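Following up on my earlier thread - several people asked me to post the actual chain instead of describing it. Fair enough. Here it is, all 59 residues.
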Amino acid sequence: MLDTLVIDEKKTYKIEELVTLIKVSKDISVYSHILFVALMGMCKSEINGIKYTDIDKYY
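Reply from S.P.:
Thanks for posting it. Predicted structure:
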């Protein structure tokens, strides 16, 4: 039996907030990290472990 996932909306970004975050971070060095966090839900250690060969460029 699966447990019900409870999401605390106070700790979750709204779509408008994510769009703003992505737009304002476009010219900083951690832009790719912000994209991975915002769009993929990855944590810092997962992002730091990604290699270029892990990315499927033909998808």
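The mean pLDDT is 84. That should answer part of your original question.
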